Fold this sequence. Notes:
Strand order of the largest sheet: 1-2-3-4-5
Number of strands: 5
Distance between the termini: 23 Å
Number of helices: 1
Helix content: 10-25%
Strand content: 25-35%
Order of helices and strands: EEEEEH
Number of domains: 1
Shape: globular
Amino acid sequence: xxxxxQPVRVATGSDEEGMLVFAGDRLVAVLVRLTxxxxxxxxxxxxxxxxxxxxxxxxxEATFPDLEAAKGWVHARLRxxxxxxxxx
Length: 88
């Protein structure tokens, strides 16, 4: 299964750089890049799973150091058919 990322601006109020994540022709997740507002937590520049659909719908926050890590997490969850938090 191939994942396709499409840049998008997300109206979150602060972290607006985003990526739509598609598995084939299905939208499976929306990622946002965390701004310097998150510097104190060490997460500035990381990617956050703003929302996931289906097995990617999760009760906990998931952050990733880069898009490759996020794609790996998404791919694994879709392949295994399981949700849950992950990332850095």
